[in-house]
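Before we proceed, please read the two lines closing this message. Report back on whether the structure tokens fit the sequence:
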Amino acid sequence: MIDYVKGRVVHWDVEYIVVDVRDIGYQIYTPNPYAFAKTSEAVTVYTHHHVREDATLLFGFETREEQNMFRKLLEVSGIGPRVALGILAGGKPEAVAAAIRQENIAFLTKLPGIGKKTAQRMILDLKDKLEALTGGFGLTADGLAFDNPSIPPELLEGGVAWREAKEGLAALGYTTAELDRAWHAMKNSVQADESVDALMKRALQQLFKG
């Protein structure tokens, strides 16, 4: 079992990154590849080593919480690695955990690849296993989990997926002002279940327009 990989990110794509570890490049699928574009220094990627008959794959995460949630999601019937990765691209672990513990099917069915029956299985299988991930977090209307109820909703505009997309775009050299303009131009047409990658593509279209 490969628990983590430490090295420099030498390439990233819409689905994966490549981490150079002593001149060996590990292809690692991750919820938000652009999050690892923030630095040219060595990073630690927490991994899940998935072996099947026709492939050996690595799935990677920025935090232990994401890694743990990914593994919990794989315990649910009907959720494979790709769907679990999509779930974490659509919501932070604490937000997903809070939705499961609150039996918030409306939020869960907005996650990529999750229908009502799968959402119900997630609640049934995981509700009592995620307390460590949720802690005292609550869930806002847009799916953000937070433990400070004094944070005004306007500071959370765009939700988790847009915040991660914004970080990835900033790492590519775009300024906060440019990204804010892109968001205001596209926000009225954004769907609640859009992934980080989809939002990045939308924003890039706006940025290319000038």
